[in-house]
């Protein structure tokens, strides 16, 4: 945490996760029905089991009343023996029904959880890059993990709430059947209990929000400081960050203690009202027994019903906030699922035939939102097998150009077109286009798994011979074979057990494993060291043979051998030609090249063993 030791303001994602919904949201329930429909039989089993469990539970005090008044009071031990057997059978049925209810609802909940997460993951995979540019990753993870888990409890909770309602109605009916006056007297404290619960709800809600906000801040602080531990230690911020974390951690502690105190205060209050109701029932019931107007067994059963009467009321109140959170989670999940990709294949789009490799940008203009255009009337063409380098200062539009070619974004209608082999890429299916293309980004991203799985990531049908051929082409085969398990070496998260250069070489091999006809390199050598860059440069000569390549470059030393160099500035093409031609013009490219050459680590002065100065490239 940078700056003061005060509580950090929660992000939009954290604030969004704190929202409560209505206790019943018909839209959420309606959208959940398709996910519940495959489990109709299990739901029916759960409901029937719930009714049996509730009925057998409510029957216990009535059975005790029968035993006392009909058998014990009359000395009928034979009848009592039969009643005990029936009592045991009732308990066994209750246990079996409760077990069946829990198992059925767990299968329903887990099945719904599986289907929802599957649909959300598939939906997120279909979203274009622009969606992730405007959406926080933490917020999406919260939806897939937190909200889906919260919603899973809704089905189980619905059955539990129904069970509490049925229990409450059954207990009220039983008490009134035993004795109407005593039943009404025992329920006299119910309005007080409802008022207490109603007054408690706003405090409980605020308490929950405070706890959730506090833990969000603690988790965010923890993640930030662990992920940035090198910067923290490099700047010697450990003590300062520990103090800042203590402030946030203390707030979390105080929030939890406050919530515990609030919850602990409610239960004794409910117990107090239960005690008052029991006292009224025992006092007036005792008077009625002395007057001969009530049997002892009836009073004992009545006392047991009074004790049970407050349990479903208390449970329903406790479930109130949980229902609100589940409904809010459902609303957020379905809002996300309703987010339509803003870049989809056009109606009637055709499969891209086998690519020959011609690429053309025809009068392309493109901008992000309401900002200025990143590309302005760009005309550029790459013939099959030609290597075209695109260079320019930061913000010139180089990466935008690569994004349009790979169809991460589409050129708006009326603002030009990107064509491959003369076909507008907007009129073909994206999948059929990009599977014949390869791309390497500046930051290599490797997935958890083996090196073999990473190279074959998007083309599992590639043979091992082709995989080895690709790694040899980029100079990665030797270091892979030096690893303990070779191609079956398991990579840590994001390839953490490889160097930056090794990760980039693996990403090169992955890009060419399926022999793409068009290769896009977006600053692909910007993050590698000089030794690795030299190795990659040597490999690229073989790598690019017979392929059309669009090379976005920051290090201009990597594009000197390109067939053509296109220079972008402020979204426009300002120069175009081969390296010698552009250097001879002494324009923007020449200035950028000289600056780049002077800044290159390979040209920093070093000293030989005699102490004389020389440049890193061997020139005096």
Describe the 3D structure.
With 620 residues, the chain is of the alpha/beta class. It folds into two domains: 22-337, ABC transporter transmembrane region fold; 385-396 and 433-602, 3-Layer(aba) Sandwich (Rossmann fold), CATH 3.40.50.300. The chain contains 20 helices and 14 strands. The strands form four sheets. Strands 6-9-10-3-11-12 form a six-stranded mixed β-sheet, sandwiched between helices. Strand 11 and strand 12 form a beta hairpin. Helix 7 packs antiparallel against helix 10 (238-290). The chain is elongated.
Q: What is the end-to-end distance?
A: 49 Å
Count of separate structural domains = 2
Strand content: 5-15%
Given as residue ranges, the uncertain stretches (5+ residues, pLDDT < 50) are 1-18, 601-620
Summarize the structure.
By secondary structure, the chain is of the alpha/beta class. The chain has helices spanning 12-16, 26-36, 40-72, 77-126, 129-133, 137-178, 180-186, 190-227, 229-234, 238-290, 296-337, 398-405, 430-434, 451-455, 464-473, 477-482, 500-512, 530-543, 579-585, 588-599; strands spanning 359-367, 373-382, 387-391, 417-420, 423-424, 437-440, 449-450, 490-491, 518-522, 548-552, 564-569, 572-577, 605-607, 613-615.
Supply database-style keywords:
four-stranded antiparallel β-sheet; 60% helix; disordered N terminus
SSE order and pairing:
Blueprint: H1 12-16, H2 26-36, H3 40-72, H4 77-126, H5 129-133, H6 137-178, H7 180-186, H8 190-227, H9 229-234, H10 238-290, H11 296-337, E1 359-367, E2 373-382, E3 387-391, H12 398-405, E4 417-420, E5 423-424, H13 430-434, E6 437-440, E7 449-450, H14 451-455, H15 464-473, H16 477-482, E8 490-491, H17 500-512, E9 518-522, H18 530-543, E10 548-552, E11 564-569, E12 572-577, H19 579-585, H20 588-599, E13 605-607, E14 613-615
Parallel strand pairs: 3-10, 3-11, 6-9, 9-10
Antiparallel strand pairs: 1-2, 1-4, 4-5, 7-8, 11-12, 13-14
Helix pairs in contact: 2-11, 3-4, 3-6, 3-11, 4-6, 6-7, 6-11, 7-10, 8-10, 8-11, 10-11, 15-17, 17-18
């Amino acid at each position: 945490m940078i700056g003061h030791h005060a509580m950090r303001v929660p992000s939009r994602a954290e604030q969004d996760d704190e929202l409560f919904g209505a206790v019943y949201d018909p839209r959420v329930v309606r959208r959940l029905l398709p996910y519940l429909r495959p489990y109709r039989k299990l739901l029916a089993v759960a409901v029937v089991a719930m009714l049996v469990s509730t009925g057998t539970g409510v029957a216990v005090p009535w059975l005790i009343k029968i035993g006392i008044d009909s058998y014990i009071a009359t000395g009928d031990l034979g009848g009592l023996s039969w009643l005990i057997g029936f009592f045991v059978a009732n308990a066994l049925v209750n246990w079996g029904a409760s077990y069946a209810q829990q198992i059925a609802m767990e299968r329903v909940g887990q099945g719904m959880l599986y289907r929802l997460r599957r649909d959300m993951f598939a939906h997120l995979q279909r979203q274009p890059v622009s969606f992730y540019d405007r959406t926080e990753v933490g917020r999406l993870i919260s939806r897939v993990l937190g909200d889906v888990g919260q919603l899973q409890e809704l089905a189980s909770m619905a059955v539990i709430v129904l069970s509490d309602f049925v229990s409450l109605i059954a207990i009220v009916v039983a008490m009134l059947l035993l004795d109407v006056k005593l039943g009404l007297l025992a329920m006299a404290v119910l309005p007080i209990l409802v008022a207490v619960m109603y007054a408690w709800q706003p405090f409980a809600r605020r308490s929950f929000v405070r706890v959730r906000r506090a833990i969000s801040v603690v988790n965010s602080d923890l993640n930030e400081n662990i992920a940035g531990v090198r910067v923290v230690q490099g700047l010697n911020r450990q003590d300062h960050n520990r103090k800042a974390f203590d402030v946030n951690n203390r707030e979390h502690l105080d929030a939890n203690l406050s919530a515990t105190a609030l919850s602990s205060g409610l239960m004794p209050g409910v117990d107090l009202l239960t005690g008052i109701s029991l006292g009224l029932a025992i006092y007036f019931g005792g008077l009625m027994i002395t007057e001969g107007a009530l049997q002892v067994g009836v009073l004992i059963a009545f006392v047991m019903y009074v004790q049970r009467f407050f349990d479903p009321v208390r449970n329903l109140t406790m479930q109130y906030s949980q229902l609100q959170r589940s409904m809010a989670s459902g609303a957020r999940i379905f809002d996300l699922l309703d987010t339509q990709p803003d870049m989809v294949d056009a109606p009637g789009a055709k499969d891209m035939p086998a690519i020959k490799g011609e690429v053309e940008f025809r009068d392309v203009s493109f901008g992000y939102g309401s900002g200025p255009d990143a590309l302005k009337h760009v005309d550029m063409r790459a013939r099959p097998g030609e290597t075209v380098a695109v260079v320019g200062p930061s913000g010139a539009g180089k990466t935008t150009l690569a994004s349009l070619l790979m169809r991460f974004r589409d050129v708006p209608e009326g603002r030009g077109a990107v064509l491959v082999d003369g076909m507008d890429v907007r009129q073909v299916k994206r999948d059929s286009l990009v599977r014949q293309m390869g791309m390497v980004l500046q930051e290599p991203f490797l997935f958890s798994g083996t090196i073999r799985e990473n190279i074959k990531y998007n083309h599992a049908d590639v043979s091992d011979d082709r995989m080895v051929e690709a790694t040899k082409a980029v100079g990665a085969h030797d270091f892979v074979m030096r690893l303990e398990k070779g191609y079956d070496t398991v990579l840590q998260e994001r390839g953490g057990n490889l160097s930056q250069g090794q990760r980039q070489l693996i990403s090169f091999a992955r890009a060419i494993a399926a022999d793409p006809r068009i290769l896009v390199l977006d600053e692909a050598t910007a993050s590698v060291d000089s030794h690795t860059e030299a190795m990659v440069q040597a490999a690229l000569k073989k790598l690019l043979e017979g392929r059309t390549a669009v090379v976005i470059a920051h290090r201009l030393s990597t594009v000197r051998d390109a067939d053509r160099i296109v220079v972008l500035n402020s979204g426009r093409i300002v120069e175009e030609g081969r390296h010698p031609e552009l250097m001879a013009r002494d324009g923007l490219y020449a200035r950028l090249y000289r600056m780049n050459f002077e800044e290159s680590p390979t040209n920093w002065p070093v000293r030989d063993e005699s102490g004389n100065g020389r440049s890193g490239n061997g020139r005096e």
